[in-house]
Amino acid sequence: MSYQKFQPSQLFTGTEILGPGKVLITDEQGTIEAIVDQNEAGEGVQQVHGLLSPGFINCHCHLELSHLRGRIPEKTGLVDFVSRIVNERHFPEAEILDAISTAEDEMLANGIVAVGDICNNSLTLAQKAKQRLAYYNFIELTGWLPQAAEARFNRSLEVYQAFQQLQPANNRFRTTLAPHAPYSVSNELWDLMMPYFHNQTVTIHNQETGFEDSLFETKQGDFMRMYGLMNIDTDFFTPTGKSSLRSYFEKMLPARKQLLVHNTFTKETDLLFATTISSDVNWCICINANQYIEQALPPVELFRRQQANIVIGTDSLASNHSLSILDELKTITRFFPQVPLAELLQWATYHGARALQMEDRLGSLEKGKQPGIVLIRQIEDQKINAHTTVQRLL
Hints:
By secondary structure, this protein is an alpha/beta fold. It has helices at 78-88, 93-109, 125-128, 149-166, 187-193, 211-218, 222-229, 244-248, 268-277, 287-294, 300-305, 325-335, 341-348, 350-355, and strands at residues 3-12, 17-18, 22-27, 32-37, 45-54, 56-61, 112-119, 134-141, 173-179, 201-206, 257-262, 281-285, 309-312, 373-377, 389-392. Strands 1, 2, 3, 4, 5, 14 and 15 form a seven-stranded mixed sheet that branches. Helix 4 (149-166) runs parallel beside helix 5 (187-193). The longest helix is centred in the middle third of the chain and has 18 residues, at 149-166. 46% of the residues are buried.
């Protein structure tokens, strides 16, 4: 068997940064063999300038919305953004499929090796069958009206079954049902989907806007305007008097792991509530989408202070200019420069792999894994900056 040997300026293992003098050895397929000192590596070592890292994990994406790139105005707020998505997502299928293929090419070029992808239909299925990336497919359920729960569930179940048919032939592929958001899923719909959560990672859009809590606490705020725009009767809904997260989170507990996305307006009391009753809740930051929609920032320092499991997502091209984890890390560093490089990279690699239950093969440079290898260049003073680039090597 022949091996590839890389000696970078720095080597990030998935948990720590090793200085110069280390050599990463893989086989021809990129399976990790060892990390050794340079004097033990033998011949054929390639010198590479930059930091070698496992491939990136994109924990939150909507690949099926890639055709909406540049079509949704920025900084409109969540309600108007959601309304535009609902009204403008219908395009010729050929155009949608072409955009999906192009977006996956972009993720590959940007060093992404696995994706937690939201699916409302099966349009991404043919692209994913090519097995270029690993996917955790979250078949999204939406339905606020109790009387619509069964019909909405059955429609999503058909999508789920289409993805399940491919899964046995693809070990880089996993599928589950998942709720869209607290403000779009009725209790009746929750009851129908919860039996599917066992042993799965289940995701939800959480506290993406400040008035999500207002809905559950007092039945007020901009979501009431959204229901009006959509002609949705809300007479059935009684507020819980609690925050959004406290109102729904226990319904997520049948899942093995919870993946909460955005969390832009999550408070410390909510974080402590979730982490007290769940042993594996993961908090996904999509900072560029937060900037695109509401010019808001997630509470990064709150998560760090409480040692929360932070992971990174890109959201969709309807709410972002790129599908690049590096671009997300650049923005986080710009607003939160105090986050150490190794910690930031861990969110983008090992933490993400754990959240998607793919840490057996992705996320770290451990023997026997095939995590993808990326080379990150132009890191200055141990900080990612506007000029930092990423290149996929394996």
